[in-house]
């Protein structure tokens, strides 16, 4: 289980432990920025906390790539007996919320493609 500190964009710092660590062993937080096509200056300012190093990674998925990712999952779901979709929440309060990165749409479309989805 990964442990450390989670940095919130509101400036808060809270102890963090995630039940599902990432492939690289880092805890991740995120902020979503929706941009129109074109060039945009992006500035990230962070201060180290508790004398720990801070690493910033930027990643993105275009709307067309997101759609291709979901369609690939739907196509695969049609070819198997029982598709399994993994989703998780970091707290009980998040269970009633929508999933990040279009997770709700992914689950709905996979389940529609194959009613044996778990």
Question: What would you say this structure looks like, in words?
Answer:
It is a single chain. By secondary structure, the chain is of the alpha+beta class. The protein folds into 2 domains: 1-57, no CATH class; 61-118, no CATH class. It has 2 helices and 2 strands, in the order ββαα. It has helices at 63-77, 103-113; strands at residues 2-7, 13-18. It has a two-stranded antiparallel sheet. The relative contact order is 0.14.
Going by helix content, strand content and strand pairing, the class is alpha+beta
Biggest pleated-sheet summary: 2 strands, antiparallel
Helix content: 10-25%
Spatial strand order of the main sheet: 1-2
Mean pLDDT score, rounded? 75
Indicate how many domains the architecture comprises.
2
Q: Report, as a whole number of angstroms, the end-to-end distance.
A: 25 Å
Summary keywords:
118 residues, alpha+beta, two-stranded antiparallel sheet, 2 strands, extended
List the helices and strands and how they pair.
Blueprint: E1 2-7, E2 13-18, H1 63-77, H2 103-113
Helix pairs in contact: 1-2
